[in-house]
C-alpha cells in the first residue's frame, strides 16, 4: 500500500478542513475500543444495586490504512436480551403457596427471601478516531442483558392456579418494568456519548465518555429506587402475593 506520511498542520481546525486533512495525511489515524460494564441487580422486595468494578475489557489500537481514513458518521447500536431462570415450586393448596416460594427461592439477601428479581447488565463500548489534533467518537454500542429469576408452578391444582394466574403475570410485569428502565438509560448513555464534542486527547475523551456512562448508571439506580417506592415494590401493580391470599 502506498503511503504518504506528513506532519499535521495546526491551522487545520474545522471539521471540513479536518476531513480534507485526513485524506491528505495517510496512516495518521488510529482508533480504539474500550468496553466498560455496569450491573444492576434488582430484587422484588427490597433491592440491592451493585455497580461492579468497571474493568477495561479490551483495548485495541489499530493503525488504519488509507482505506480507513475517511471519518464515517457516528453510529449507534443497542442490543437487548432477556433470559429467564426458573425455580419450581409444588404447592398443593392455596395455603402452601407462600411457604413453597420461600423454601425454594434461590433469591435472598441479608436473610430475607425474595420471590423474583431482574438483573440487568448494561454495557457500553465506543470507538474513536484521532488525527494528531483531536479525538472524536465514531460509534457506540450498547447492550442490555437482563436475567430474570422467577418461580414456576410445578403442580396443577385449581385454587392454586386461580391465585397463580392472577399474581404471576403481575410479578413478571413488575420485573420487566426494571428492565425497561435499564433500556431507557442505555439509550441515554448511547445518545450522550455520540453527541460528545471532540477532545484534543483521546484519554480525555474516554474519561468523559465513561463519566457519562457512570453518571447514567447512578441515575438508573435512583430510578429503580423510585420505581419501587412508587409501586411499593410492585404491590400497587399487583405483584405482591399477599394481595391474593
Ligand atoms: Zn421492583
Structure characterization notes:
- With 245 residues, the protein is of the alpha+beta class.
- It is 35% helix and 28% strand.
- The protein has four helices and seven strands.
- It has helices spanning 15-24, 97-104, 158-194, 202-231; strands spanning 30-43, 62-63, 75-89, 108-109, 112-113, 117-130, 135-153.
- Strands 2-1-6-7-3 form a five-stranded mixed sheet. It has a two-stranded antiparallel sheet with strand order 4-5.
- A hairpin with a 4-residue loop joins strand 6 (117-130) and strand 7.
- Helix 3 (158-194) runs antiparallel to helix 4 (202-231).
- The protein is elongated, with a radius of gyration of 25 Å.
- Mean pLDDT is 74; it is low at 1-34 and 39-72.
- It binds zinc ion.
- Zinc ion binds at residues 42, 44, 174, 178, 228, 233-234.
- The chain crosses the membrane at residues 54-76.
What characteristics describe this protein?
7 strands, 5-stranded mixed β-sheet, 28% strand, 245 residues, binds zinc ion
Topology at a glance:
Blueprint: H1 15-24, E1 30-43, E2 62-63, E3 75-89, H2 97-104, E4 108-109, E5 112-113, E6 117-130, E7 135-153, H3 158-194, H4 202-231
Parallel strand pairs: 3-7
Antiparallel strand pairs: 1-2, 1-6, 4-5, 6-7
The protein binds zinc ion.
Organism: Vibrio gallaecicus
GO biological process, one term: proteolysis
Keywords: Hydrolase, Membrane, Protease, Transmembrane, Transmembrane helix
